[in-house]
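batch_manifest entry 22 of 60
target: MFS transporter, YQGE family, putative transporter
source organism: Pseudozobellia thermophila
requested by: lab member K.T.
priority: normal
notes from requester: please return tokens only, no post-processing; we will run our own comparison against the previous entry in this batch. if the run fails, retry once and flag.
--- input ---
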Amino acid sequence: MKKSHGVGWGDFSKSAKVLIITNLVYAFVLPVVDIFVASYIMRNSNDPAKVMLYQLAIYSGIPLTFLVNGYLLNLVNIKKLFSLGMLLSGVSMVVMMSLDEISYIGLTVAGLIMGMSFGLYWSNRDYLVLTTTTDRTRNFYYGLDTFFYTVTGVLVPIIVGWYLVNGQSPAMEGINLRYQTVTIIVFIVTIVASVIFHMGTYEKPKSEKFLYFKFHKAWKKMIQLSFLKGLAQGFIVTAPAMLMMTFFDSEGALGTAQSIGALVAAFVMLLLGKYSKPKHRLAIFSIGLICFFLAALFNGMLFSTTGVILFMFFLLIARPVLDIAYFPIQLKLIDVLSKFEERNEFAYILNHEFGLYVGRFLGAMTFLGLAYLGSTEIALRYALLIIGTLQLLSIKIAKQLLKQQKELEHEME
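--- output ---
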């Protein structure tokens, strides 16, 4: 009877609840990192290539930190590593705002620190979610997670965007000073999130080998999915900021555009997470991919203020819908394969990150290649469309993966 009403808050353990609340607080940081750091670089350099360099530095730091984290988990408490990941995002922004000019070296250093932040945060978070949730509760976990992320993705850009606009001055010192104020607030929020996280109890992974190069055929399908997901991530984080600054030239408009359709999407995510079941994940995943393709299609066809607004609308739906299906698919496969192959769960988390990195690198290089051979406009217009089309292959791959996973589960029974 209980299952017919979906999964509820009471189905989570105390540690899972603490992790969810921690992520809720840290969710106020992510939109600032995703959007306004890129817009800060654009405002002070007017060079999309520098935005992409910063993004490449981040993406290079992430897998390296995943690898180092595997060794650190045998020596350092996972709570400290997860907290350090959150705190480093504030440190990276401090480094960025302290630069006298937006130089390539400065961007690389700030990007690598942010990459280390994300690496520590996501590698440990993935493991913590895996160990504190069950397959039954993961749809709801990611429903809550995407709900928080989407709501903060609305509120934070509006508040920060209009705060920055009100600080504009002819010499630009006013708006840059407000960027610095935002950085200080981000740092304080990361400290609060870290304090909350320490209220939970978490076990570290077993001290086992975690670096492997050969995996089951089902995991190879997961790596194909991670590669395609990485292609989009290669510049999807910075693309909205670059498009908004191109067509609107205002952080205020940037913040407002982020709110279009997002609140509706947030509540849809919450309901999807609560009432959807594992068997619905492929359908949800497919809808997310189609929305992403439509976002890229409207941007490529129109490439105007209207195109950007439509792009943002479909993207705000696509990203959380994809996450609510993708991560539970990944974690369920890790559950199954770690038992079947008798390996440390972190081995799969690490390997998955390298699949993402290859995709991110090629996604970013697609943008830079089009910008170099053609123009920035061509890159902003068509790189997304190319990647959005390729992403549709994920539907077929996910279907094959889930079929192989079921066969594997039957084999283990």
